[in-house]
Amino acid sequence: MSDDNEYAIENTDAGASLEIPCEAGAIKKGGYMNIKGRPCKVLSISVSKTGKHGHAKCNFETVDIFNGKKIMDMVPSTHGTTVPIVNKTEWEIANIDDEDFLSLFDEGGEQKDDVKLPKYPDDLAKKITEAWNDGENTVMVTVQAAMNMEEIVDFKIVTD
């Protein structure tokens, strides 16, 4: 081989998957599933009997974990669907700016500046802002992440 032939080697990040394939019949109440590209929490499941086309159908009543909208879906129990990988992490509020972005720190000192006050539920952002403006205690928020989306879903006040 001569030195004239150079090979271009490209590196790619394997990365973590955003979702896991799953059979619809294996999804349980209280679990998660994707419906129309949105991560949802399963509120209830009803299963119909096997019909003339050969599949029992699962009727899912779910709620979108980021905006609270109810979504219904029907999937044959033996067909595939996907389950989102949902992570929750605790962060301490360092600042809230004029555009409602929060500066957050975790226990390891890592900083996050790209999370806004939540829009759902309606009063959560107001409660977080009031607790932060009080200034006497540490305010911790729970950030839920799934499908490349992040949202604050809860908060707590830690007394010193």
From TrEMBL:
GO terms for molecular function: ribosome binding; RNA binding; translation elongation factor activity. The keyword Protein biosynthesis applies. eIF-5A seems to be the only eukaryotic protein to have a hypusine residue which is a post-translational modification of a lysine by the addition of a butylamino group. One of its GO terms (cellular component) is chloroplast. It is found in: Plastid, Chloroplast. Keywords: Chloroplast, Hypusine, Plastid, Protein biosynthesis. The keyword Cell division does not apply. Its main location: plastid. Gene3D superfamilies: 2.30.30.30, Nucleic acid-binding proteins (2.40.50.140). SMART domains: eIF-5a. GO terms for biological process: positive regulation of translational elongation; positive regulation of translational termination. Pfam families: eIF-5a, IF5A-like_N. It comes from the Eukaryota. Residues 85-156 form the Translation initiation factor 5A C-terminal domain. Translation factor that promotes translation elongation and termination, particularly upon ribosome stalling at specific amino acid sequence contexts. Binds between the exit (E) and peptidyl (P) site of the ribosome and promotes rescue of stalled ribosome: specifically required for efficient translation of polyproline-containing peptides as well as other motifs that stall the ribosome. Acts as ribosome quality control (RQC) cofactor by joining the RQC complex to facilitate peptidyl transfer during CAT tailing step. Belongs to the eIF-5A family. PANTHER family: TRANSLATION INITIATION FACTOR 5A FAMILY MEMBER (PTHR11673). NCBIfam families: eIF_5A. This is Eukaryotic translation initiation factor 5A. It comes from Triparma laevis f. longispina.
